[in-house]
Structure formats: C-alpha cells, structure tokens
Design a protein that fits this description.
- The chain is an alpha+beta fold and 1530 residues long.
- A 5-stranded mixed β-sheet has the order 8-7-11-9-10, with helices on one face. It has a 5-stranded antiparallel β-sheet with strand order 19-20-23-22-31, with helices on both faces.
- A hairpin with a 2-residue loop joins strand 12 and strand 13.
- The chain is globular, with a radius of gyration of 33 Å.
- The two termini are 20 Å apart.
C-alpha cells in the first residue's frame, strides 16, 4: 500500500543529517539498507506515477494521500477510510504461544486500560510462567527517560478542524473494548481489564462499582481531586487514572518477536507530578514527562492452588488484581473474594502505593467472602460466560458486540517461530500447495460454505446439558432466614438432575426435584464457595471438559475475544444449535435497561452522560484524551441501547406515549431515549416530498449532528442521534432534552422556526454560539422575514431549532439543512444552472426536496476556490512587479511558488501598509472567487436560499444574487470537477473499490452523493478508458440495482406481519435472484393465523391492513418495479425483466447481488450452497432466512490527537525518517488505544502501517505480529468479507513468506482470492496483484504449472486494466518468462521476455535500468535455449553415447522470489553507494548553511524534497518503499 502522508510536512533541520548518519552507520555495520518512502511511484525528482502504473502496486481502495495541494488535512470519510488508505500500526499482544498460558501483568497504572509508549526505563511488563517472573526485553527503539513531545504535533497546514466528516453508516464497528468477556483475559496473556466494564456493558456485570460510565468518571475525578495532584503517563502524557473510567479492557503492547514467540506489552508508567512541575508553554503546549521505573512482585495465596508471584505496579488499583485473578486459567471461577494483607482487607479503589506495608515480596491472601443475591447472580453469569467462551453463536446472532474471525483457521494457531517451516538441509519439507477447484483461475463456481469455514469440532466442549434458574425462585421467607439466595437447576452430562442452592456461604446440592420443594441440603451437600468446584465434584465430565475449555480459551489471540465498539452483523450463518441459557433468557425477559439491579439510580440518563462528557476539560493532552475516551465510550453504549430500543419498538414490545393515535404517528420512550418513525405524520414535510422527505430527513439531521460535533464549540449542544433501519421502517433514536416533554414546542423554541420559515425567532446567545461554528461549516449569517415581515438574523438554516433545556444548556436540533441545497436535484422556477449542469440533463426533479450537498464537497469547493484566488492574485501581482522591474519572478506553479506565497502573504487580512495597487488586486481576486468578505478569503453559503417558505427582505439584492451564483457554481463543480476526478482516480487505480460499500465511500470522500451514481456509470461507459473502468461500471450497475431493490424491499416488508417474515423474505429473494419463473409464497398455516379472529381485531402492526399482498409478487413484477425505480430514482434505464437478463447484459454475479442486498437490508441467510439457476425449484426456502438485523447509522467520535500523531508519523515515513516515523506511529497507536480501547478500525490502520515499517526495516517477525493483529481487527470490526480484510490477508501472506512460512502464506492468499471472487468476481484489477502473489509463491515451491495458471491470468487482467503497453504488463511478462525458464520451455520464456523488453524500451528508453536488465535476461535465455537445442541435437545424433554437458535448470531461490514479491507489492530497493551517501550528506549540510537565515516553511519543504534525490549505483543496496511498482527510475 502507499504509505500515505502529507508530502509537505516539514521536519526539523537536524533530522536529515541524523537520518543519514544512521543510514551510513547501518550500511557499515550490517550492510542493510535505509529507506526513502514516497507517496507516488517515483523518486522525489520525478513527477508522479504514470497513469498506467498502479500506485504502490497494491491498489489502495481510496486515494492514498491524506493531504491535498496545500497539505491541508482532507478529513476522514468513515471509520474504514484510514484502513483503506494503506496505512498501518500496533496493538494488543497476548503473551501466550503454542498452548502454554502465560500470565501477563504490567507495571503501570494504565497497564490494563491505556496504551503506553515505548520508553527506556519503563517496565514493558512481566511474563509469569510457572511462578517465575522476569522483565521482558523491549524490542522497539528506546526513548530517553525524559523528553518533551508537542501535545499537538499537527503539520503546520493540517487544519483538520471541522473537516473530520464522517458519513459511513457505521455498521462496521462494535461496542467499546470494555464490553469484552472478562472471563477471557489473563491466562491467555492478555493484560486484565482495568477496572471491569461498566455494568451497562453486556459482557460482564461483575463490576464492583455499579454505575454508568459517567458515574465512574465522576468517582475517579473526586478521587483525583482528593489527592490534589496531576499525573501524566510517560511519553505522550496519556490520561491517567481517570482514563480508566470508561472501563475498557485495554490491552497494550507491541510484542510478537519471533524469539520463542513470546509477546510482551509496553505499558504506560504514570508518573506523579505536581502542576508546577509540568511545564506548559501556551505557544506550542509542550509537556515534559518524567518516567519513573517502578514495579514489584507480590506473592498470591489462593485456597486450593499453589502460591504464585504476580508483577504489579504501585499505580495500580486493588481492583485490577481482582480482574487478573478472574481471568487466570486456574482462578477464573472465583468472583466473590477480598484481598488481605496481614489480615487487613484492601479497599478495591485504593492504589497499591497507598497501602501501608505492601512491598516487594509481600503476601496477598485471597479470602472468600459471603455472597449476596447480587454477588450470586454475578457469579452465575461469570460461570456462564466461561462455559460459552468458545461458542460462536453470539457472533452469528450479533449480540453483545461479538463478531467473527477466521484467521486462526488458516494460520493453524498463532504465527511466529512456532509456525516457521522446518528445513531439511536446503530442502523444504513437502507442502500441499494445490488450491481448491473453486479458487483456480477461470472457475465459475462461487461456493458460499467456505465463507465461514467450520472447525472440525464444530460443537465446542460441552460441560453441562442444562444450567438454569430453578422454578422455585425466589426463596420463601423462612429459607431467606437460613441464608438461601436463589436456586439453580442443573442437568449434568451424565444425565444427573440436580437442584442447587446458592447461599451466603456458597453453593450446595439440595433435595428439591422438578415437582417437590425440599430446600434441605442433600447428603453429601458438596458445599463449595464456587459453583465450578461444586459441579466438578458432582460431574467428572464437567471437571475434565471445563479444564480443557479454559486451556483452549487462554490459547486464543486476545483480539478474537475482545468486544468490538459497535456491533458487526454477519449476513450468513451456519445452523447454530439453540442451547438452553438462563442468563440469555433472563436478559430477554427482564426489561434489562442496562442491568438495573447493578446500577444505583436505575436507568442511565443518556442526555446527561452525553453532554457531561462534552463538558470535560480539554486544555492539554491528558484532558483531551480522557474527554475523547469518555465521549467514545458513552456514545458506543448509547448506540447499542438505541439499536435495541428501535428493534423493540418495531417488534411491538414498547408502549407508545400517544397510544390513541394512528400507528405511524406514534412516538415512544424507552430507557430514556426518544423514538420516532420515519413517516410524514402531520403533513410536516408536505412541501418537501411527504414520506420520502420524512425518510431522508433523519440521515440529513445525523450529518448535521456529525458536523456540529466535529466543530465542537463549547456551550453548544446537540442530541445523541442514532438512525436505525429495521424490518422496512426507519426509526430515529434521540436523547431527551431535559424538560422538553413538559412544554409545548412553541414555548420551547427560542431560535429558528417550527414551521419551515413562516414564524421565525432568533436569540443573541444562539447567534453568538452559532457564529463560532459558521466559519468551519461555511455558513453565511443572513436575515430572513418572519410572519410580521420583520427581519430576523439567523446563522443556520431556518429549520434548525434552538431550545434551552431545564439544565440551562443551549441545544440545537433538526439540523437537516445544515448544508446548502443541491441545485442539480432542486429545479427552481426562473433559475438556470451553469452550462456543464444543463448539458448533463440537470436540474432533475428528485422525489424529495431535501437534497443537500455533502460537507466534503463544500470543503473541496472552497479549496478549489482558494487555488483560483491564489493564481489570480499571484499572476496580477507578478505583472505589477514585472512592470516595476523590482523583482524578477521566476516561475509560478499551480500551487504557488515563493513569489506567489509572498504575493498573498496578506491574503487573510489586507493591512493598511500594503501598496494600494496590490491591495486592489487582492480585493479584486476576493471578489472574483465569491468571498463574502472584502478583507479576507472567506467563502460561505446561505443554506436558506431556495428553501420554500423562506422570504428575504430584498429578493433581488446583489448579496442574494451572489449567494445563488455560489450555489450554482458548487453544483457545477460537483459535475465538472469531482466526478471526473473520481473517474480519473479509478483509471489510475488510486481508488480501487471492490464492492458497493467501498464505491460509496470513494464517492462520499469526494462529496458526491449516491444519487449521482448513474451519472458516474454513464460517464464511465462513454469514457475513452472504458475497458480500464469495466470494474467500476459493473460495480455501479450492481449498486444501482441492489439499492433500487432495497427501496422496494423496504415498502414490501412494511406489509408483512411478524409470523410471515421468513416466508416473505425468502419469497422476495426468489423473485429477485432465482431463475425459477413462478415462486409461490406459502402463507403461514391457517391454524396459526385464525382469519376469523384477525378480521375482528384492529391490526396492531405498522403496515397496511392487507397482510398478504406481498405474497402475490412475481419475478417479472419485481424486476419491472426495479426497472422503474432505477429510472425514477437514478435516471438509469436497465430494461431487464429477470435477474438472468441483468446478469447477461451487464456481466454481473448473482452471489455478489445476494451479498449486497443482504448487507444493505440486514438479512441473514443460512450458510449453504444455493442453486440460483435451477428452473425447477426456487433457490430459497423459508428455512434459509435465519434473521433480520438492524442497519444502524450513527456518529463516529474521533481521536483527534491520535490522528495528528498518525499524520506526523506518516510525514516522517514519507521523508525517509523511518525510525522517527515509527515512534510517532507508535505514539498514535497508544493514543488510539487510549480513546477507542483495544479494537477499532483506525487502530487497524495504524497496525498495518507499523507492520509495513517493521517489514521494511527488516524485522519480519514484528511485521508478522502486527499484521496478524491488523487482520484480526479488520475481520472483527469490519467483517470477514470486507474489502479491507481481503487486503490485510494479502499483506499478512507476504510477511509469512518472508518468515519462511510458505504453506501459511499460500493459504492466506487462497483465502484472499476466494473472498474477492465472492465479493466481486475474477475480473478485477486487484485480482492481478493477488494472482501475481500466488503465482510467485507457487513458483518458489516449484509448482510450475499451477504458478503459470495464476501468472497468465494476472497478465491478462493487467493487460485489460492497465493497457497492453503498461509497465505492469511488462513485469507480468517477465514473471511468466521466469516460470517458463524453470520449466526449460525457453521458446515461450523468450517470447514473453521479448514482449516485456519491447514495453520497457518504448516506455523508458534504451538506457533505463529495467530495459538493460530485461536485455541481459533475454541474452541469458537465448544462451540457455541454444545450449538445450545443442544437447537435444547431440542426443538425436549419438543416441545413448552422447556426451551431455549438464544443463543448469535452476529452481528459483526464496530470496529471488521474495525480491519479486516486494516489487509487485510496491517495495523497491534502490541502490545507493557509500560515495553517494557522503555526497548526499555534504549537499544537505551545504543547503542547511544556505537557508540558515530563512525560516519559511515552504522553503524548508522544498529543501527536504530536493535532498532525497537517490542516485543509482550498484555498490551497496539501500531498501526503499517505492510504491509505484516497476518505475525504479530516478
């Protein structure tokens, strides 16, 4: 992947020489190579990648650079954006390998909760095995004990503020790390979760504190204040004790070196510092952190097992030791105990250093405590979690933030030294390389079963048949007085039925049976403090299987177990047996609003939590981290609760607050969240498109909330908002403004309008707050007329309402028109659009009038105008200067050179001392680009222009005319710039979507709405590069068809009652995808649906009264509806009467259509093979529909500081300073961990980049470890078949190969190829890269015939998508020639190499290194061919007497195969000689002296860019990341 980074980020002047010294030293010491990393394919002095050479050879999904022309941050599009850009990073490492359980204990307060950086003198953590303990060496570059790091290391130009626009629906992520199963941690070597997750998290209620995330924050806050001090962790002052509060089981570390495969964890050491000790310089907010190296060992004494040592840190809380013990393999079954030191019970919330007498070697005794009802319930829940820890059913069912991962099935356990191939001399042991039939090139078979490969032992170890609450609960009064808390009913594997009493003293067997109540203890009663101990005595099978289960559990990678921050749903699932589960049953049938019994104060006040977290201080880095972490935690909890509530509302389980009204008009409150349905109930949207407008308004509102949250103005509050699509209904879930329900809306609204502009009010405080957001959001302050014809000043659209809650906070809501209208889809009488729009057939009538431009488009448009302004001003100023002969301006580039910069230095504010003529020039330039200000560049939009019902004082004023023109220009900019730029990026393959989601993401990044999809498809079909865009065309058509089908399916589902859901969905899928001409829907049987009764009662469902209309749908009717929908919504005509016609006409794949419709609509189908083409039976039956899931859209809170570190790290990597880059990216990783917990897609991106850097720097084991984490995280947080996951598998395969794990590398590549076939099909540019990788590895293991099949397929695909004369094709020819050479088929080899040589010669010239290499290889092949012919002639002539010279048929060396793999994956090694390095160093010093006096950032940048000009000689080789594959030209 391209290592994307801002090209212009400047570095300090000392960086380069030190980097060069480092390089020279390494060349001398090790003969290894330094790296220079570029963002596009060539060395610094070349322009950029040629169109036909794929940047990086790895084809990132989206544009690879996060900066635009001026180095400005372009903002993130979605959680997966970072991932897809080809960046990488580091995280959790389990300290266990090969089946041995290691206990991991880190030496810092944040060891289990916050990520730490690598620092000299800190304890990286201890691995304790069999009682022994010792520090683990830390492999990463060490940092001096004291250092200062800018708290906000943003590249000068990276003004990310207001640009972090998030538009992905967010189905990809899942709830916060804090919701993992605490049962799963420490014995596996996972650092324990510190403090346990808040009770609201589904994973585990056993938190000794029992309240929401905020209660925990305030608790810690008060502790902190009591101690009156400030603590900063090392390295990047990550939030300390308070940062625990979100309760994420943060695991931290960077382990995974190959030595024995032991991983370790770097840990943050929080150091106590008084405020006056911390230097804070307001200018750049430098924070100095002193690291303290402490940590000691205590002896743990636990009943029933041998004492063992545990490494602890003074800053830890007692609570964290509890967590460790509940996770260890041998102590995991204990939950109700206290820790005692010399007979004194330790307080759970005390820090270890505050405990008198606790020191190195102290003995901590675990003392069993009496149970309460709450503790007993927690204990049973914890045991159930342990019994279920390997059961994947929660992942398939999409509950509790569990999700699937299959990597370990292909790597057969962990990667590392254990996976290394054993070598017999130089021979490789035999490995089976044959791919399955369906993976071979040309196979048309797309089996579904392999998507979720099932383990050989599908059924996990069963310990009990039944464990459930007894029907005799609760204990009667007389038994309560004997200490009975509750009764359990158990059936053991030996089929023994047992009744168990949970009492204050523990668990024992009583004499009750299913029908008679006898609570007296049985004989023997087996009284045990732990339920596991009791069951082990009753059932030998339980004892054996439980031990085996825990051993297995601790061997799993922690990333397979940690909960994701947001739920990820799987669109397929095998048949999972429905087992009896008392906890699940209890959760379903109690109202379970977040474990009320564990939370003082009952339900959570979501609004208060969401707003309080926003009010947390943010002056310095620790405060910002704590704040972002709290916001993220509360938000992920809110999204989960809102999703559950929305499903309950649609399923009819929640009582409406206005039950007397029509069903569509009903509103609901559940768990302090307000729910409303997406229907136009009171003709509110009558002028805007009725129900269609009401359906789209919530998503527009969500985009507005996202934008205001990103600007983050103090004192202005938005509502927590989640939009859920479920069973054909759209539900909006919002937090509740305090007091809103007691007042009439007219009294509440003090700003904005409740009737789309008829009555309008304003408020000075709101104007002041909104003015602060206006510049970032490009909103123009404007006056509108109210019903009394008075002018009212607004700084938002009229629909935006301001309400002051009873908590005195200023809330804004209804942000659906935050961004200006899209005139291409809003015909206005008397207004004409620019020519480029009208040529394309705009304006078009859309089905609603709420079409807005995206925030990304506004940003890009303003950026574009800024460039135009710079050019205008610079050109005119240059002419002036030329006239005066004062200064000769050499050149003005498009981006502006030093002259231009000087010319517009004052462009932000024109001061008085500027020459009047210059001032005039700049003012004219402002005017020309439409700036609203005469003194600065400031483009703003009036969102109320063209809004029906909004009136202005003077509708013909020049100001209004300017605003209208600006909107027209923006609409034209989308058509004339953004869409062509997307298409160009697709031709260049800098954007490589593989499915509908990644295509939509690429469009959204450029500010293009989905409604323009047909325009893109149309432009692609007319493009000169149509063949190179074939995959975009097919993806576009697939997306248009499946989105149209989704629109129809939504309305179809609304008419179906619950009992007919599976029949209705299977019938729809048959009509949509099956070749069977007349599928019949089997209605639910009559005895279940009594018609008599149903006719008498009023239907309670939300749909229409006729519940069987859906059953009469036929394939022809459905496809006719789809054709109409594509025409009406997208203006795209498909004219197909059946799926077979569409597949035939557009070359689509039914499996891809099925995947897209399931993912978009939330359908889960049975994992089995479907025959789509049978004309004798329908493809789907009702048994094939397993579930219907919600599709959820919400805001994704960001970790801003982490992102700036990440960008700075990329910039360093880009400039060739790999070590510094690596450190910064490690810091970014630590900060991401701090905010998001252990599992998040942005951490995945970080891990990928880190793995890439490890690989380039020669640390293959570390690369393997980090990439393994990246793959697991991508599978868990994005989905097992997400395009990013496919790419992560490819990277991992390369690192496996470099580590000598050939068999694993092949399995991973085959998995990657299978997924791409399933998601898109074979004819995709990424398939060429995949097949080249597979072909090379097969060549390496001497499977020549198989290798040829893959390499020749890659050649064909490269020829199609890059053109027959591209350098990619030349490389493909060379790879094929090498295989033919190995097969001794020299004629074929010569032919292919000649083709390659011709391309190199024509493209690069005779003197280019590549041309010369090819020429040399041709000579060698010719010699070999001649030698072979001579030998053959000799044999023909002399028969068996022939004297045959032995021919050299060389099998390829692993090194040569790896070299070629590096080339195709975008890693090139540019040779630099020692002499070149010395010249380079001298040149740097000379230039630094020259620029001594000059501080200009631009000049620094240009110097750095020139400095890194590599020269080519072949004396010593220096490795470089060269993303462009073949162009090694200098």
């Amino acid at each position: 992947m391209c290592l994307a980074a801002p090209k212009h980020a400047s570095s300090t002047s000392d960086d380069l020489p030190s980097a060069l010294e480092e390089i020279t030293k390494r060349v001398k010491d090790h003969g290894c190579q330094p790296q220079v990393c570029h963002a596009c394919g060539k060395s610094d002095d070349s322009d950029c990648c040629a169109d036909d050479s794929l940047c990086c050879g790895e084809t990132p999904l989206k544009i690879a650079d996060i900066t635009d022309v001026r180095g400005k941050s372009i903002g993130w599009e979605s959680p997966s954006e970072l991932v897809s850009r080809g960046q990488e990073g580091d995280f959790v490492q389990s300290a266990q390998r090969g089946g041995e359980g290691f206990n991991f204990k880190t030496a810092a307060t944040e060891s289990h909760s916050d990520a730490g950086s690598v620092t000299e003198g800190h304890h990286c953590g201890r691995l304790t095995r069999g009682g022994a303990t010792g520090p683990v060496p830390c492999p990463l570059p060490q940092r001096p004990p004291e250092l200062s790091i800018p708290a906000d290391p943003r590249p000068e130009c990276a003004q990310a503020e207001g640009k972090q626009v998030d538009s992905a629906p967010g189905r990809n992520a899942s709830r916060c790390g804090g919701q993992g199963k605490p049962a799963d941690g420490n014995a596996a070597g996972t650092p324990p979760a510190s403090p346990p997750p808040p009770p609201s998290s589904p994973g585990h209620p056993a938190a000794p504190e029992g309240d929401g995330a905020l209660n925990r924050i305030s608790q810690r806050e008060s502790l902190r204040k009591r101690r009156k001090r400030k603590r900063l962790p090392h390295s990047v002052s990550v939030g300390c004790e308070e940062a625990h509060s979100s309760g994420m089981p943060l695991v931290n570390g960077d382990g995974g070196h190959g030595d024995g495969g032991h991983d370790h964890s770097e840990v943050e050491n929080c150091k106590e510092k008084d405020d006056d000790e911390t230097r804070v310089d307001d200018g750049n907010e430098q924070e100095v952190i002193v690291i303290q190296d402490t940590g000691f060992t205590v002896k743990m004494q636990i009943p029933g097992i041998e004492p063992f040592d545990l490494q602890v840190s003074p800053q830890e809380m007692v609570q964290e030791i509890h967590q460790v013990l509940m996770d260890r393999e041998d102590t995991c079954h204990r939950t109700c105990f206290s820790l005692q030191l010399d007979g004194n019970v330790l307080d759970n919330f005390s820090e270890l250093k505050s405990i008198e007498g606790l020191q190195e070697g102290s003995s901590l005794k675990v003392v069993e405590e009496p149970y309460t009802v709450r503790e007993a319930r927690i204990h049973v829940r914890h045991i159930r979690d342990l019994l279920k820890s390997l059961d994947p059913s929660d992942s398939y069912n999409g509950v509790d933030c569990n999700s699937l991962s299959f990597l370990s099935m292909f790597t057969e356990g962990d990667l590392g030294e254990t996976g290394k191939r054993k070598r017999k001399g130089l021979e490789l042991e035999q490995i089976d390389c044959t791919p399955p039939e369906h993976i071979l090139p040309g196979s048309k078979d797309r089996p579904l079963l392999f998507l979720q490969p099932q383990t050989k032992d599908v059924k996990p170890l069963q310990c009990l048949k039944v464990l459930t609450m007894s029907g005799w609960n609760p204990p009667p009064g007389n038994r309560k007085m004997h200490g009975d808390l509750m009764y359990l009913y158990v059936v053991t594997m030996e089929d023994r039925h047992v009744s168990i009493t949970a009492s204050t003293r523990g668990f024992y067997v009583n004499q009750s049976t299913a029908y008679s109540f006898n609570p007296k203890p049985a004989n023997p009663s087996f009284l045990s403090h732990s339920l596991v101990e009791l069951l082990s005595q009753i059932s030998p099978i339980f004892k054996k299987n439980f031990a085996a289960l825990q051993k297995k559990r601790v061997q799993r990678h922690p990333f397979e177990r940690i909960a994701t921050p947001f739920q990820v749903y799987s669109w397929t699932a095998p048949t999972v047996e429905h087992a009896m589960d008392c906890v699940r049953a209890e959760d379903a049938y109690t109202s379970r609003l977040g474990y009320e019994e564990h939370i003082p104060g009952q339900t959570r006040d979501w609004n208060e939590e969401l707003q309080t977290t926003r009010e947390l201080p943010r002056k310095n880095l620790p405060e910002r981290l704590l704040r972002e972490r709290a916001i993220f935690k509360v938000h992920s909890d809110f999204a989960a609760a809102a999703t559950r509530g929305a499903m309950a509302v649609i399923d009819g389980n929640v009582m409406a607050i206005n039950p007397g009204e029509e069903t569509k008009m009903q509103m609901f409150i559940w768990n302090n969240i307000f729910f409303s349905l997406g229907f136009d109930v009171r003709d509110h949207y009558k002028d805007f498109g009725g129900d269609n407008a009401a359906y789209v308004a919530p998503t527009n509102d969500l985009n507005g909330v996202r934008a205001y949250n990103a600007v983050d103005v103090e004192g202005l509050y938005t509502l927590g908002t989640v939009v859920v699509d479920y069973r054909g209904y759209r539900v909006t879930a919002q937090s509740i403004i305090p007091g809103i329900l007691e007042r009439e809306q007219e009294q509440s609204v003090i700003y904005g309008s409740i009737d789309f502009g008829k009555t309008v009010v304003s408020h000075p405080k709101y104007l002041e707050l909104l003015e602060k957001t206006a510049r970032s959001l490009k909103i123009q302050t404007h006056n509108v007329l109210n019903d009394k014809n008075e002018e009212v000043e607004l700084c938002s659209s009229v629909e935006c309402k301001g309400i002051i809650g009873n908590d005195s906070r200023h809330y804004i809501l209804d942000l659906l028109r935050t961004f200006p209208p899209d005139l291409n889809f809003l015909p206005v009488e008397g207004e004409e659009l620019p020519e480029e729009c009208s040529k394309m057939g705009f304006p078009k009538e859309h089905r609603h009038r709420l079409s807005c431009l995206r925030q990304e488009l506004i940003e890009a448009f303003v950026e574009h105008r800024y460039l135009v302004f710079m050019k205008l001003a610079a050109l005119q100023l240059m002419q002036q200067k030329a006239n005066k002969q004062e200064k000769d301006c050499a050149a003005v580039t498009e981006n502006g050179s030093s002259c231009l910069t000087e010319a517009v230095e004052n462009s932000k504010t024109v001061s008085e001392d500027v020459d009047p003529k210059s001032k005039e020039v700049i003012l004219n330039a402002y005017k020309a680009v439409g700036s609203v200000s005469n003194t600065s560049f400031d483009i703003r939009f009036n969102p109320d222009i063209f809004s029906p019902g909004v009136r202005f004082h003077d509708s013909n004023s020049e100001e209004l005319h300017k605003q209208k023109q600006l909107l027209k220009d923006a609409a034209a900019f989308l058509i004339s710039c953004q869409i062509p730029s997307l298409i160009k990026d697709c031709v260049d393959h800098t954007v490589l979507p593989m499915d509908g989601a990644t295509l939509a993401e690429a469009m959204h990044q450029r500010g293009i709405n989905i409604r323009y999809l047909a325009k893109i498809v149309e432009m692609v079909s007319k493009s000169l590069a149509q063949q190179q865009l074939d995959h975009i065309y097919k993806l576009g058509v697939t997306e248009i068809i499946t989105r149209s089908a989704k629109h129809i399916f939504k309305i179809y589902l609304q008419g179906v009652e619950l009992s007919g859901l599976s029949v209705a969905i299977s019938h729809f899928l048959n009509c949509f995808l099956s070749s069977f001409p007349n599928p019949i829907a089997h209605l639910p049987t009559d005895e279940l649906v009594s018609k008599k009764k149903r006719n008498k009662r009023k239907p309670r469902h939300l749909g229409n009264a006729d519940n069987t209309a859906w059953a009469s749908t036929t394939p022809v009717e459905l496809w006719k509806s789809i054709s109409n929908e594509t025409r009406n919504y997208f203006s795209f005509s498909i004219d197909c009467e059946s799926v077979d016609q569409a597949v035939e006409k557009y070359g689509l794949q039914k499996m891809s259509l099925l995947r897209e419709i399931c993912v978009k609509s939330g359908i889960q189908i049975l994992l089995k093979e479907y025959n789509f083409d049978s004309r004798h039976r329908p493809t789907f039956t009702e048994e094939d529909i397993l579930n219907i899931f919600p599709v959820v859209k919400h805001v994704n809170p960001k970790a801003s500081d982490a992102f700036h570190f990440f960008q700075s790290g990329q910039a360093k990597v880009q400039q060739g300073f790999l070590k510094e880059g690596c450190e910064l990216i490690n810091e970014a990783l630590n900060l991401f961990n701090n905010v998001y917990g252990a599992m998040h897609v942005e951490i995945c991106a970080c891990l990928r980049l880190l793995a890439r850097l490890n690989y380039i720097m020669g640390d293959y084991n570390e690369a393997l470890s980090n990439q393994q984490k990246a793959v697991l995280m991508s599978e868990r947080a994005l989905g097992v078949d997400h395009p990013n996951t496919i790419q992560e598998y490819m990277h991992l395969a390369l690192y496996c190969f470099a580590n000598g794990q050939l068999s694993t590398a092949l399995k991973l590549l085959y998995r990657s190829r299978y997924l791409l076939l399933l998601v898109y099909g074979e004819d995709h540019p990424e398939m060429a890269l995949l097949d080249s990788n597979i072909g090379l590895v097969l060549h390496g293991v001497m499977e020549y015939d198989l290798a040829l099949r893959f390499l020749e397929n890659a050649l064909a695909i490269n020829g199609k998508y890059h053109g027959a004369k591209s350098l990619k094709v030349a490389l493909s020819h060379h790879l094929v020639a090498r295989v033919y050479e190995s097969k001794a088929e020299f004629r074929s080899a010569l032919q292919h190499e000649k083709d390659g040589y011709t391309i190199y010669k024509n493209q690069l010239g005779d003197n280019h290194e590549k041309t010369k290499e090819s020429s040399e290889y041709l000579k060698y092949l010719t010699q070999q061919a001649v030698a072979l012919q001579r030998t053959m002639n000799e044999i023909y002539k002399n028969g068996s007497n022939a004297s045959i010279l032995p021919l050299k048929f060389t099998a390829p060396t692993m090194a040569s195969v790896l070299e070629q793999l590096n080339v195709i994956n975008g890693i090139l090694f540019i040779p630099l000689s020692q002499k070149d390095l010395e010249n380079l160093k001298a040149e740097v010093e000379r230039r630094q002296q020259l620029q001594g006096a000059v501080k200009s950032a631009e000049q620094e940048e240009s110097t750095e860019e020139k400095v890194m000009e590599p020269r080519h000689t072949k004396e010593k080789s220096q490795p470089t990341v060269e993303p462009s594959t073949e162009q090694a030209s200098a």
